[in-house]
Amino acid sequence: MSLNRRDFVTRSAATAAGAALVGGAPLAAASPAAAASEEPSAAELAKHPVKESFTVMGTSDMHGRVLNWDYFTDAEYDDAAHNDVGLAKISTLVNRVRTQKGHHRTLLIDAGDIIQGTQLSYYYARVEPITGKKPPKHPMAEAMNAIGYDAAALGNHEFNYGIPTVRAFEEQLEFPLLGANALHAKNEKPAFPPYVIRELYLGRGRPLKVGILGLTNPGIAVWDKANVAGQMVFPGIVEMAAKYVPRMKAAGADVVVVAAHSGIDEPTTYGDQLPWPEDASGEMAATVPGIDAVLVGHTHKEVAQRLIVNKKTGKTVVLSEPLCWAQRLSCFDFEVEFSKGHWQVTKVSSRVLNTNTVPEDPRIVKLIGAQHKKVVAYVNQVIGTCKADLSISEARFKDVPIIDLIGRVQADAVKAALAKTSYANLPVLAQAAPFNRTAHIPAGTVKLRDAAGLYIYENTLEARILTGAQIKDYLEYSAKFFAQLAPGDPVDLDKLTNQQDTPDYNFDSVYGVSYDIDISKPVGSRITGLSFDGKPIDAAAQFVLAVNNYRANGGGNFPHVASAKQVWTNSDEIRNTMIAWVKAKGVIDPAQFAAVNWRLVRAGVPLF
Prior knowledge:
Shape: globular
Low-confidence stretches: 1-37
Number of domains: 2
Organism: Kitasatospora cystarginea
Strand order of the largest sheet: 8-7-6-3-17-18
Strand content: 25-35%
InterPro entries: 5'-Nucleotdase_C, 5'-Nucleotdase_C_sf, 5'-Nucleotdase_CS, 5_nucleotidase/apyrase, Calcineurin-like_PHP, Metallo-depent_PP-like, TAT_signal
CATH architecture of the largest domain: 4-Layer Sandwich
Helix content: 25-40%
Number of helices: 19
Radius of gyration: 26 Å
CATH topology of the largest domain: Purple Acid Phosphatase, chain A, domain 2
Protein name: 5'-nucleotidase C-terminal domain-containing protein
Pfam family, one: Metallophos
CATH superfamily of the largest domain: Metallo-dependent phosphatases
Keywords: Hydrolase, Nucleotide-binding, Signal
Largest sheet: 6 strands, mixed
Distance between the termini: 60 Å
Mean pLDDT: 92
């Protein structure tokens, strides 16, 4: 069954008797008429208000994970903490909560980033796309429909494949895809439903109306500029919450839950390019009256419970963020009271449930079994061979060949593209970052999944013109990734990197130049010995920088690059460029590209 946006309110009303959707089918519940005969009188309610409870469950940042499987290693997913991933595990937890609480006392929502992140989701966006003439079912849509989600918010990664793919995914869902701040550019009217109101019949009193507001990240306008510019705009989270929460209350919502694809209080990664903060869930809870709970997303963190007092009402708002990739399920446990014709929230708390404590739901495993098998075959295609074992394990603090490989592929692609242009004689440099700490290209046979595991994002490639001085500024900014250590201080690798909350993907090295990063010096004056072609770099000289679209559009807030002149752009993913490069070469030979072009030093003495 596929519902359009007009059906959402109708379906909410149809399930007012407390029916929870499982696999698209409502479960039987007591009829309002039958329950009404058991309701206490108004006088009794005045003396003894009805007290009830219900639970709102939530996921976020699932990034294409249905099964507990890693398509990059072609094995069951596992990490050092023995976490498990996937909607099949979430389904088991959801079923348990519904059994414990009663199906009619639960709702299930998501806070975005659903359709990007694994080769499973990539396959149905690019290889056998859901936008085709005979579109296949998207495995994430099938699984979420079967589990019985009530609503989901848009995430920024929903737009990685373009608006048509988001729309095709939306059409396959049996619940609304919400985005109160995702607007049509021409008239700034909602491009997606801003909110939905679900009704829970708790047995006595009138149905409890739970309003679910969906908000996504304004950074979409920066990160996916090529896909959304001129078509959609994404204003601030706090501002749009302030607009829609009163409307939800006016529409009868007794409880307001926000699914926000935005962290609580993290620093922004797009600087002054937009007037709104990236991670605004905390500010929203503190400044917008009427919100009871916030399902947080975007930052891939686990927050079981965070309490924020609203400055205007003095009321405590409960926030929870489940760990990404369907590793955790957040549960907001509500206590409510029906008195004088109204439901009122008397208590809210939140917790997270761990998917590694339960088995996969065999129903979900079976449901997408054929799709899973097809993708496993796809990622195991042989694309070439490699003369040496290449690992990314030390890439955060050493120049390693596997990162040089990314730089070489990007530089080759840009050189070929500019060969017959006026920029053909400019030297080409290339930006690269360590995306995946488990990436590995083995000696011997190389499969598609090996290359895909090295470049896990759907970034495309651009070429921008920067000067030597700007390249130095760029590298200085990147070097904030490291802690400051005086000569002789002990080196703790766990504390050496990721300073200022900088993720690995925002630590760039530049292929084609040589330099030292002196971590004994403060941020902003760490790059020493910067040279090109064996000579100190000319500050005024022009260079072409091969750079991914995320960085080129301002992602990470690196200096100069977003405003630099664009001389070439490509619509194909860098991952595919890498796969094509390996296929064309046949053999990956590190001797052709690997060199120690940068190193960490303290007062000129190498750290390693």
